[in-house]
Amino acid sequence: MMQMTGAELILRLLERQGIETVCGIPGGAILPFYDALGQCDTIHHVLARHEQGGGFMAQGMARVSGKPEVCLASSGPGATNLVTAIADAKLDSIPMVAITGQVPLGMIGTDAFQEVDTYGMTIPLTKHNFLVRDANDLLEVIPEAFRIAMSGRPGPVLVDVPKDVQCQMVSFEDYPPVAVPNALPEVDLLAIEKAAEMINASERPVLYLGGGVIHSGASHLAVTLAEQGGLPTTMTLMALGTMPIDHPLSIGMLGMHGARYTNYVLEEADLLICVGARFDDRAIGKAAEFCPRAKIIHVDIDPAELHKIKTAHVGITGDVTQVIEALLPLVQVKLREPWLAQVADLKQRFPLAKPDLDNPRSHYGLVQAVADALDDEAVIATDVGQHQMWVAQAYPFRRPRQWLTSGGLGTMGFGLPTAIGAALAAPERTVVCFTGDGSLKMNIQEMATLAEEALNVKIVLMNNNSLGLVYQQQSMFYGKRPVASKYKRAVNFLKIAEGFGLDAVDLDTAENPAATLAEALQRPGPCLIHCSIDREEFVYPMVPPGAANTEMIG
Amino acid sequence: MSMVIERETAAVTKVVLELEVANHAGVMSHICGLFARRAFNVEGILCMPLADASRSRIWLLVFEDERLEQMIKQVEKLEDVISVVRHGAEHAVFERLETFFR
C-alpha cells in the first residue's frame, strides 16, 4: 500500500511518464505541488518569467522531442497567462500537458482570491481538460491527459487541480500503467487502392505535405512516395523540412507568401495528394479557386479534417506513416518527364526573388548568412511577422523538427521561449530564434530565463522599429495609411540584452558583419545578434487576404 | 407551436441527435460550447443519466444545415462522447415533451 499527497502523486506519475523537465511559475494555489517538486531530484524545473513563456518552453520541448511536455501555472492570472500558449498548441497540434493550481474545492464559485474558471475558459482551447475533484482521480486523470495529448492528432490537455486536492492523502496499491498512445486507426485498403489508381492515372499530380507528416515521423516515407511516383512536392509552413528544400522534386512552400511558381504549379495540377495538411486559408487562399483542375486525395488522422474545407474525391482517415506504407507498393514508378519539365519551366520563369542575398545586413542576406554559418543540426525557431516569412521562404530546411514556428495561431512572442524549450530538449544543438522587434518585446522577459539556464540560444533580431507585417498590409491594402504600426521611439536592445546578462553583438556597426555573425553563432551560450533592416522592405510575393493564390502581388 | 409550423412550411428539416456520453460535470459545457462557438443553433436539449450511472444520454434538436456533418464529426471527437446517432424529425422524444412547454 502506498500513501502520499495528491501533489506527490502527480509528480510520481510525471516521472513515470518520462518527464525530465517542466516549465512554469509558482503561486499560491500550486504551492503544494511546488513543495513536492522541491524534494524531487529527477525533474528539473525551469522558472519562466511569465506563464505564457513557460507554456511556450513546453511547446519548444514538445516540438523538438515529439512527446508531450509539461508546463505549470497557478490559479487565476497564472492560468489566464497560460491560455495563449495552450491555444497555440491546439492550432498546431502540439502535444502538451498543462497543470494549473486552483483555489480549494470549497471556495470554487465564491470569487475567491485568484479564482478563475480555468476549466470553462480552456474548453475551446484544449483537446480535452479536467478539473480534479478528488486526489484519487489523479491515478486515472494524469495518464489519461498524456494518452489524449499524444493520441491521434496531438494536442494540449489541461489538468486543473484545487489546492486542497494537492494536499489530500491518497492510498493505493499500484501505480497505473504508463500512458501510451491509442492504437492507430485501421487503414481502409479499398480507399488506398483507389488513391493509388488516381495517382497512377494522373498526368500532373502534386504532393501537398502538412505538419501531420512530421507528427507521424513519416518525412522519409513522404520523400520516397514523391520519388517513386514522380510527384512535385509542396509543403505548408508547418511541414518545412519534411522534404529537403534542394530536393529536385521540392517546389517549396505554398500559399500567401509562397513563390509564384509554386502557386502556379498547383493551378495546373490535375491531382492533389494532401497528406497531413488541413487546407488552411493562409496556405490555399480562396478555397473555391484553389487547385481548380485537380481531383483531391486527402489523408489525415483526424476524420473531421476530411471534406471540411475542400471535398476530397478520396478521403483516408489514417496515420500518415501507415497510409504511405500501404500506398507505396501500389504506386507505379513514373518519370513524368512532360509534367516535371513544365514544373521546371514555371520554376525558372517565376522563381522566388531574393534580392540582396549577399548582404548579411539585408533581410534575405541575414537569413542566408545564418544558414551559411550553421549546419542542418541547428534548430531554427521564429517569432511571427515579416522575419518569419522571410525565414520560411529562404532558409534551407532539410530535416523534420529543424523548424519551429507558430503556424495556426500566429503568436508574436512565440520565438524566444520556444527556442529556450528547444534548447532544453536538445542541449547539444545550436538553437536560433529569428525575431522582430515587435515580437521580441512580447516575451522579452524570458531573456532572464535564458541567461539563468545558460542555453545555446542565439536570438537574431531583425529590427525595423515597427510592426512590419501590419505596416506592410496598411501600405498595400489601406491606402498607405500606417496606423499604430510604427514605433515612435527606438529601443536599445543591446543594452536590454546585456541587462539580462546575455552576450550581445551589433551587425549594424560590425566591420565584417558575416564574420561577426558567424563568430557569435559559434560561441557557446546565449547571445543577441542585432541587425537593423529597412522598414520599406516587404514580404513578396503576397496573396491579398481572401484572394485566390494566383492573384499574387510582387 | 406557431413557430414550429412556420419552420415546417419553410421546409427546414429538423434533425434529432442522440448522444451517449460520460456522466460527469462539464460534459454539457463541452458539447454546447462546440455548437455555440460555431454559431450553430441548438433548438432543444435534453439530458438524463442512464441506468448505468456512469453514462448519460443527451438529445439535441438541431436544424439541418450544410455544416451539420462537420458538427457531428466534431462532436464525435470529444473525449467524453461515446456515440452519436442521427435521427430524423419523426423521432418522438421532443414531440412528447411539448406538453411541458405549452
Automatic annotation (TrEMBL), chain A:
Pathway terms, separated by semicolons: Amino-acid biosynthesis; L-isoleucine biosynthesis; L-isoleucine from 2-oxobutanoate: step 1/4; Amino-acid biosynthesis; L-valine biosynthesis; L-valine from pyruvate: step 1/4
Domain Thiamine pyrophosphate enzyme N-terminal TPP-binding: 4-120
UniProt GO BP: isoleucine biosynthetic process; L-valine biosynthetic process
GO function term, MF aspect, one: flavin adenine dinucleotide binding
InterPro entries: Acetolactate_synth_lsu, AHAS_TPP, DHS-like_NAD/FAD-binding_dom, THDP-binding, Thiamin_PyroP_enz_cen_dom, Thiamin_PyroP_enz_TPP-bd_dom, TPP-bd_CS, TPP_enz
PROSITE patterns: TPP_ENZYMES
Required cofactor names: Mg(2+); thiamine diphosphate
Superkingdom of this protein's organism: Bacteria
This protein's UniProt keywords: Amino-acid biosynthesis, Branched-chain amino acid biosynthesis, FAD, Flavoprotein, Magnesium, Metal-binding, Thiamine pyrophosphate, Transferase
Cofactor note: Binds 1 Mg(2+) ion per subunit. Binds 1 thiamine pyrophosphate per subunit.
Domain Thiamine pyrophosphate enzyme TPP-binding: 383-531
Family in the record: Belongs to the TPP enzyme family.
Protein known as: Acetolactate synthase
Record organism: Denitromonas halophila
Higher taxonomy: Bacteria, Pseudomonadati, Pseudomonadota, Betaproteobacteria, Rhodocyclales
Underlying gene: ilvB
